[in-house]
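Hey, resending since the last one bounced:
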Amino acid sequence: MSIDQPNKCENCGCTETVQPVSSSFSGFERTFYLCFSHRIEFLSKMSILTSEFVANSKMVEGIELLLEGIRAFTGTNLNDPELDKTPYRVARMYSELLSGYLIDPRTYLRTKIPSVGDHLIYEGAITFNSMCIHHMAIISGEVHIGYVPNEYIVGLSKLARVVEGYAKRLQLQERLTEQIITAIDDELKPLGVMVVVKATHDCMQIRGVLKPGTLTTTAAVRGIFKENDASCKSEFLAFLKGGS
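The structure tokens again:
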């Protein structure tokens, strides 16, 4: 007996191309039908090392070469059995940290809800971890988003998913800020939008200048926030200062 494949994503209900993805827990196998974005997210969270994440084991080979370089640089053997599976572990870690390349974060903003007003919507302290494009060191911080809707809004989780999608890439904080605000502005076409990103950079904390705790803040504004609407900007900054 054949069972028709669902034509809607089990996670978000969208009708984009839906594909099956299977997982096994303690001998129990379950197949989920997910859109592309949620399929990639599922695989990343389950830490499944597939060809989508480590094509032809190139990352594993690269980590093995890196370990060889460390051995040569330090002049030590590093003959430690704990390192046997390290290349696979590190490759899996990078497949998670860089999984944003496998999705288009803008798709999260295409499940829209009609707006019921033109008041400020603020979502703050969206945490993220990213990777510095120059040193491949970790960037950790928070994103604060405020927008005044025109015709449409989106569910709050969608904004967090947009942040996650752009953050899980090799990044510059300035570029991350611009990508988030551009996606929201293009897809929702709000009356105005403002994004503030606050983050610490391990490339400054654990190497080089060695300044732990240094906080970098970037901001971008569009629409009425950029024009001369002091009340909207003041309301956003009040939320930001209040931390809620």
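The longest strand covers residues 121-132.

Sorry for the duplicate.
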